[in-house]
Amino acid sequence: MVIFFQIAVNGILSAAIYALIAVGLSFLYSTAKIFHLAHGAAVLGAGYAFWWSWAVMAWHPVFSVAFAVLVSAAIGFLMNELVYENLRKRGARGLGYLIATLALLMLGTGLILSLFGAAPKTFQFQTESFDFSGIRITALQIWTIIIAAALIAAFFWVSKFTKFGKAMRATADNETAAEVLGINTRNIRRLAFVFSSALAAAAGILVGLEFNLDPKMGVLIAVKGFTAAVIGGVGSVPGAILGSLIIGFGEHGAVWFLGAGFRNAVAFILLFAFLLFKPNGIFGKRT
Known about the structure:
Layout: H1 2-32, H2 39-56, H3 61-89, H4 94-116, E1 129-132, E2 135-138, H5 139-161, H6 163-173, H7 175-180, H8 185-210, H9 217-232, H10 237-257, H11 263-277
Antiparallel strand pairs: 1-2
Helix pairs in contact: 1-5, 1-6, 1-8, 1-9, 1-10, 2-3, 2-4, 2-8, 2-9, 3-4, 3-8, 5-6, 5-8, 6-8, 9-10, 9-11, 10-11
């Protein structure tokens, strides 16, 4: 019985990180109608910015966090301004955006490799560990879950109950009608990329502290965030959270019962299964 509780705890920890990415991806798809897989580059950029400023330059952690968020927000903003908006002007379709987002993800990975090298980066961060009747969890893991939940709740509140959130929903429902009503849809897309990249920054920082930073992790974490969004229904924030939980539990269950080699395979298996049998996701609407 203890094993199942430990798997659940580990699954919730992974889900907290995936949800930060999946919520941002769902939000961007609702607003800009783009499957922004290059979101993984924003996660990676924030993680390395935090590592460089704290572990190398010895900045105060608060300044390092602020710097990482600014770097991630800048990455998201520039991707939208320099690539997606230009594609939009030229009347690009889904395939054009898909090729662009994959190219941006590869570009981000290449830049990280050139700047920091291929060797994994560690923080050597020590944290207190707790044992609850055989179930082990660290203080960092507890804070990871709390921080992720608080950020997602704040993000959900902004999207539902603020003027920006209403403008975003209007843009997502009908961009032409939103522009007729006086909403600057381009600014809405800009802000959507900035806010979503801020969530990505939190994911990058937490991944770096809990695990290691690796230049190749941007691709994998983008796929897992995308899979969580697909499972829950792209465009649904609650769906993104549920999808993240499914992947988190599935991964750690596979590690325990099948071996560590099956961990990353779970996300791909779930992605293919939902694309084949329920492409709209659990909470997605048929269009």
